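Readers of this paper often ask what the protein records in our data store actually look like. Nothing more is needed to write down the fold, since each code stands for a local backbone conformation. Below, we set out a record of this kind in full and without editing:
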Amino acid sequence: MTTQRSRSLGRPTLDEVAARAGVGRGTVSRVVNGSPQVSPESRAAVEQAIAELNYVPNRAARALVTQRTDSVALIVSESEARVFGEPFFAGIIRGVSAVLAETPLQLWLAMAQSPGERDRVNQHLTSQHVDGVLLLSLHDDDPLPGRLVERGLPMVLGGRPARMLSDGAGISFVDVDNVGGGRLAVEHLVAGGRRLVATIAGPQDMAVGVARLAGYREAVQQARLPFGEDLIGYGDFSEESGAAAMRKVLQRCPEIDALFAASDLMAAGAMRVLKERGRRIPSDVAVVGFEDSVIARQTEPPLTTINQPVEEMGREMARLLLDRLRGDGGGGPGLSTAAGVSAGSGFATAVVGTSNGHHSVILDTHLVRRASA
């Protein structure tokens, strides 16, 4: 006997699930799309039929009905080598994935550092492909935030371009207390008796670079210590940039007795150069980094650093985006994970209200003492 199932080709259809469950096609559709308007008995029958037939919903057809793609994009404005090679980005991805794992949403990752990469990503970032966007490691010249605002796509930034320090532009973001962390690092060095504190700052077209340098300046000036551009080097948060900046600072001010580096990787590069020049750490030069990544435990000596909760930053980014998606309407039961910003996170946070109902989160930082300072 030839049955409807044996005659069909490919994967089972919605009609076959309905026939197996003994319900109408519309009932199956409501179950698949998470509608509460289905009786418990009908839902159980449909779910059993789905399991027996190994039915997989047609995402394209479902998108036509729900006006959702069930996909969000994480766009990182850095090279592939850095995204897959530096602990910060891995931590963000773990945090985002942990929250989205509790929803129907799928995450896709793209790097967009060069103009060509940005153009390709830009073409894909439409409501036909993704429901929302997470943007990470933005610089001032990045056009993506403006384009997404024009398209009305919900988005959340991880960190900010420097211009957003003065103009939030009504965009939700998650960041850490970079000024406070930079200040805390220098205060620790000063408390240890250091009197000529240099710094290696991050890019000045990123808020994180500007803010950590501001924290350094505040603490040095508060302590009435020598201050000037000769004591400041600049890097891009990578280890090699930290080494290059350290060489320049030592050439200008060889007598420094302390260093605050705006990332652990830059601190590791700086420590390598200090050792090459015969400087003992911490007796000759004390060093403090920023992030508390795995790198801080691998340097010799282990690195005193400012802890920023990277995975929690990723989780908050995802939670804020879920809030945005629910606020845009159409968020099904699976999108109700973010009951409140920072709820139950266990981290000290400040929730910042911006224009047009957008909210942002600032995560606290703290000092982790190890042997380098």
Q: What stands out?
A: Residues 246 and 270 are 5 Å apart (CA to CA). Confidence is low (pLDDT under 50) at residues 1-8, 328-346. DSSP finds 15 helices and 13 strands in the chain. The longest helix spans residues 310-327.
